[in-house]
Amino acid sequence: MRALVQRVSCGQVEVEGQVVGDIGPGMVVFLGVAADDTEWDALWLANKIANLRIFDDEAGRMNLSILNTKGEALVVSQFTLYGQCRKGRRPSFDGAAQPAVAEALYQRFADHLEALGVPVSTGRFQTFMSVALVNSGPVTLLVESESARPSASSTP
Question: Residue 2: beta bridge partners?
């Protein structure tokens, strides 16, 4: 599972001209689900992102998490994070999960992030969305669960 995380002062997503999700200060999380991702990836990534210390403390250092700041998260599905551009001119999305699997894990990620105490708004899965955000910093990070995966006998 792959997330592009941006610290924002605000964010919003529209579908067919209607706002379906909006937040104030916090983070926008563009979430891609790989074909071999499992529930473990969704839980691990939600925990990692909820505890990332990317918000400034009183000294101006990135030392606080979204949990500390009581910020919000806007989670937007983005299969194109698994676009492979090494060959040719058209990206290949073979590494992305099939829509039914991706939607379930996307929802599991958002639900777990919310259960951790982060207010969550979402886009609408498998639709054309217009996303607006104001990146604060700017701070943009790519966070992946693949490198943290345990052996098959471990649980999240």
Answer: 32, 144
> Which entry of 30, 55, 79, 109 is annotated as an active-site residue?
79
Q: Which residues contact 56 (CB under 8 A, 6 or more apart)?
A: 62, 63, 64
Q: Is 155 a catalytic residue?
A: no
32 - beta bridge partners? 2
Catalytic choice (80, 84, 126, 127): 80
What is the per-residue pLDDT across 64-122, written as a single tens digit (0 to 9) for each?
A: 999 999 999 999 999 999 999 999 999 999 999 999 999 999 999 999 999 999 999 99
- SS3 call for 59: coil
Q: Which pTM was predicted?
A: 0.92
Catalytic one among 6, 12, 78, 122? 78
Contact 49, 29 (CB under 8 A): yes
- Measured N-to-C along each axis, helices 39-50 and 99-115 cross at an angle, to the nearest 10 degrees, of 40
Asked if residue 119 has a cis previous peptide bond (ω within 30° of 0), the answer is: no
Angle made by CA atoms 93, 95, 96, in degrees to the nearest 5: 70
Q: Is 78 among the catalytic positions?
A: yes
Question: To which H or E segment does residue 37 belong?
Answer: none
Average pLDDT, the chain: 94
- Is-catalytic flag, 107? no
